[in-house]
């Protein structure tokens, strides 16, 4: 699949590197750092302009600071129409005890700014180092990626891209639920930064009185 990545930092390299290794055709667009990122991603990844990255693929990853989203999306919102637009961003701001969100629902704002884009939230919960790594099973549990989006085809595309990274995708609802992924990230990363094992907050499913996994 052709994937355009906007932003050329840690997330672009981690996700782009895995997708390139899985055989996808990757271009990276940023203001100054695209060439270095394309080289780091390898497997024929190319540096292009931000506009070219936006136009390139059937899927586009927004690997940008939240503060840059408006600049990038408002340049030509029509470009994204019909494309799968993957949002991995977090609107973190420092807060007592961890992080808060500088805005409550980034994925929904992206969808409002680029009408026609098939926005899917995914990959925002974990650090780039985890996505770039090879550990995919922890304590016998496959590393699972919640995916939120309204367009079934786009959700399936992103689920496939998660599988290409040897991850286990789960469709966790429509885009209106992406704000919970964003809040979860702020809360859990705050726990981790404070030195607590966030995983220990939750018992395994079989002890959670939840519906059994299928
Ligand atoms: N790093 C993580 O572990 C992690 C984990 C989960 C989610 N996230 C989220 O993922 C997003 C990206 O994080 P990151 O760590 O990859 O960021 P990063 O390493 O700081 O890289 C951000 C990239 O955005 C580009 N950029 C900034 N402003 C731009 C603009 N106006 N137009 C075009 N490109 C622009 C920068 O390149 P130029 O300066 O060359 O333009 C840079 O390559 C953030 O929203 C972050 O919260 C990060």
From TrEMBL:
Q: Lineage, please?
A: Bacteria, Bacillati, Actinomycetota, Actinomycetes, Mycobacteriales
What Pfam families is this protein classified in?
Answer: F420_oxidored (PF03807)
**Official protein name in the record:** NADP oxidoreductase
State if Oxidoreductase is listed as a keyword: yes
UniProt keyword Oxidoreductase, yes or no:
yes
Stretches assigned to the Pyrroline-5-carboxylate reductase catalytic N-terminal domain: 2-90
Which keywords does UniProt give here?
Oxidoreductase
Organism field: Nocardia terrae
A GO MF term:
oxidoreductase activity
């Amino acid at each position: 699949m052709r994937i355009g990545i906007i932003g050329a930092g840690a997330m672009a390299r981690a996700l782009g590197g895995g997708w390139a290794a899985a055989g996808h055709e990757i271009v990276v667009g940023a203001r100054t750092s695209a060439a270095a990122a394309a080289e780091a991603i390898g497997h024929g990844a190319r540096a292009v302009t931000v506009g070219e990255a936006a136009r390139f693929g059937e899927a586009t990853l927004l690997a940008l600071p939240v503060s840059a989203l408006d600049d990038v999306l408002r340049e030509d919102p029509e470009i994204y129409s019909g494309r799968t637009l993957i949002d991995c961003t977090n609107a973190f701001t420092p807060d007592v005890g961890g992080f808060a969100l500088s805005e409550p629902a980034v994925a929904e704002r992206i969808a409002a700014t680029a009408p026609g884009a098939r926005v899917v939230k995914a990959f925002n919960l974990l650090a780039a180092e985890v996505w770039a790594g090879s550990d995919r099973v922890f304590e016998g549990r496959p590393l699972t990626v919640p995916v939120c989006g309204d367009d079934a085809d786009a959700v399936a595309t992103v689920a496939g891209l998660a599988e290409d990274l040897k991850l286990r995708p789960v469709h966790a609802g429509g885009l209106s639920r992406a704000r919970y992924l964003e809040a979860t990230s702020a809360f859990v990363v705050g726990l981790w930064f404070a030195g607590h094992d966030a995983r220990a907050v939750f018992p395994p499913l079989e002890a959670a009185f939840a519906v059994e996994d299928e």
